[in-house]
Amino acid sequence: MGECLRVSTMLTMRERQRIDAVGAGVYDILHRDSIDDVLCDVRSCRVRGVVLSVARCEGPGLLSVERRIAGLVRGFPLVTTVSLLTDVGGATPAAMLSLGRSGVRLIVDTRSLDGWRRLRDLLTVRSGAVPAIEALAVTQLTVDLQGASWDCRRLLLGLFTASGTVATVGELARMFALFPTTLISRFRRRALPSPKIYVAWARFVRAAALLEDPAVSLAATVTALEYSSSQSFTRHLRLYLGLTVPRFRETLTGAGMLARFREELVLQHRARLEDFRPIDGHHGSPPDS
Q1: Chain region(s) in the chain for CATH 3.40.50.2300
Q2: What is the C-alpha to C-alpha distance for residues 67 and 249, in angstroms, rounded to an integer?
Q3: d(CA 83, CA 108)
Q4: pLDDT digits over 5-52, tens only?
Q5: Which of 103, 91, 144 is nearest to 261 (CA)?
Q6: CATH tag for 5-126 (out of 3.40.190.10, 3.20.20.150, 3.30.200.20, 3.40.50.2300)
Q7: Of 67, 72, 84, nearest to 39 (Cα)?
Q8: pLDDT per residue over 209-258, tens digit each?
Q9: In this structure, what DSSP letter does residue 3 have?
Q10: Nearest alpha-carbon partner for 7 in 37, 59, 45, 47
């Protein structure tokens, strides 16, 4: 077996015991007592995953913890950050809302029968192939978009640099303080493919990278990429690519899906992208800072 995945946690004692048991041989686990200690791990220990107990985010000091978690999520988008729910108390809803405001979008409820297995799958799946294909996408798209406006580069690269998967046009629009209808209208006026297609295909790039590994199940991929169900993922594949899941897995690697994204959504439209300003809606490009 290769090098263990390094994970930093802020958990209750009971949660520590359980994650140690299910992660033996899979995780190199660093248990910490505060979010500041977790942040130190992320900055200095090449941590690829963070697990935060909802129970440890309850009570006094919630706002301060929320700010620190938000800094972690924004500052280290390639680190997979997961919130862990094991018990529900009176303060649990407030803690979960706080984690959501911080940008933590992945939650595992271990009260379900397969909860701990889902946590293991989620960490191992997202912390391997996903950061690698995202980094490759940023590198290649930066070259492809050299002639495009600063505004356009910021939005399209955001599909691969956002913390967590951008799953809808609404989420993409909110990243730049836009209304979804405004973003859709600006793409339409430039005779570009709908932003729904850009969002869906960026998700497929990640999915193809994950499914290259025969050991990665469809269920784990669906969880990692935040589809509502396997059926939803299947419908998206048929709608946007005209493929079944087996055919998608057989014919497209992560790099192959990325090449298709670049060719059909970027390179074929390079002339239109040059002065496209999807965020502020004006022509021209400010100088890079």
Answers
A1: 5-126
A2: 40
A3: 6
A4: 789 999 999 999 999 988 887 788 999 999 999 999 988 877 888 999
A5: 144
A6: 3.40.50.2300
A7: 72
A8: 989 888 778 887 887 788 889 999 999 999 999 999 999 999 999 999 99
A9: P
A10: 47
Contact call for residues 107 and 96 (beta carbons, < 8 A): yes
Dump pLDDT digits (tens) for 184-214: 999 999 999 999 999 999 999 999 998 988 8
Question: Whose structure tokens read 């993409």?
Answer: 172
For residues 32 and 38, the answer to whether their CB atoms sit within 8 Å is yes
Q: Is-contact 119 51, C-beta < 8 A?
A: yes
* Residues 194 and 184 sit within 8 Å (Cβ to Cβ): yes
The pTM (predicted TM-score) of the whole model is 0.68
Question: Are 102 and 203 spatial neighbours (Cβ–Cβ below 8 Å)?
Answer: no
**How far is it, in rounded angstroms, from Cα 211 to Cα 214?**
7
Alpha carbon 36 to chain centroid, angstroms: 23
Contact 216/249 with Cβ under 8 angstroms? no
